[in-house]
């Protein structure tokens, strides 16, 4: 017999999963708790019991999403030796999120401005800031090692995130181009302007190369370890 705490956690996860899917499909404003309750055959009060408000559900989505992304990013950095490889892997991951964790990525990217305005979402905001700083630290390490040219870290990192932010509006995982092929274009664009020696660029941007394959491997490993049940493609 399952323990009560396990059942409660399971139900909370189910609620968050359905909420995430609905936000991805219809946006935050088009998602309501009654529909989620009906889909799960539970009362609206059960959702309120677990999360309180719709805003708190969005905050939970934000936090859970950024926890996964940070886990994967740290795993990736640990598997690659050089900053330019690590940055290429992170860039591939930016696009792979669209395929590997699509509903959550779309929901996150659709509502990122609303998420930023949530006063209650302290942990999610802190995790997002940690993720951005992690990317900046990789670039800074590359500059210190003489592998990447000096640049404005704040602007460069914001340009990277901004370029990936709208991918959900145009990237189709079932389309003609794979996530790795699109990621390769992003790597070429970003590292093409940062590398001190551009001779390394073809290997870094190779959709079948070390950086791309490590990015996919880390997403799969992190998902398996967490038991998230997220699509592993």
TrEMBL record:
Transmembrane segments: none annotated. Residues 9-69 form the HTH tetR-type domain. Residues 32-51 bind DNA. Keywords: DNA-binding, Plasmid, Transcription, Transcription regulation. Gene3D superfamilies: Homeodomain-like, Tetracycline Repressor, domain 2. GO terms for molecular function: DNA-binding transcription factor activity; transcription cis-regulatory region binding. PANTHER family: HTH-TYPE TRANSCRIPTIONAL REGULATOR ACRR (PTHR30055:SF240), HTH-TYPE TRANSCRIPTIONAL REGULATOR RUTR (PTHR30055). This is TetR/AcrR family transcriptional regulator. It comes from Rhodococcus opacus (Nocardia opaca).
């Amino acid at each position: 017999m399952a323990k009560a705490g396990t059942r409660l956690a399971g139900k909370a996860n189910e609620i968050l999963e359905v909420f995430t899917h609905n936000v991805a499909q219809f946006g935050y404003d088009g998602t309501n708790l009654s529909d989620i309750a009906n889909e799960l055959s539970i009362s609206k009060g059960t959702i309120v019991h677990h999360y309180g408000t719709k805003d708190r559900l969005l905050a939970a989505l934000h936090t859970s999403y950024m926890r996964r992304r940070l886990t994967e990013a740290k795993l990736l950095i640990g598997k690659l030796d050089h900053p330019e490889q690590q940055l290429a892997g992170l860039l591939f991951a930016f696009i792979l999120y669209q395929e590997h964790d699509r509903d959550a990525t779309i929901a996150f990217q659709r509502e990122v401005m609303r998420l930023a305005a949530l006063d209650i979402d302290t942990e999610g905001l802190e995790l997002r800031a940690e993720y951005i700083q992690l990317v900046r630290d990789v670039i800074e390490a590359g500059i210190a090692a003489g592998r990447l040219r000096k640049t404005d870290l704040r602007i460069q990192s914001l340009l990277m995130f901004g370029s990936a932010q709208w991918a959900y509006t145009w990237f189709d995982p079932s389309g003609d181009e794979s996530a790795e092929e699109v990621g390769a274009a992003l790597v070429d664009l970003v590292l093409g302007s940062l590398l001190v020696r551009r001779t390394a660029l073809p290997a870094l941007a190779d959709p079948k190369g070390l950086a791309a394959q490590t990015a996919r491997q880390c997403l799969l490993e992190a998902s398996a370890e967490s038991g998230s049940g997220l699509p592993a493609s």
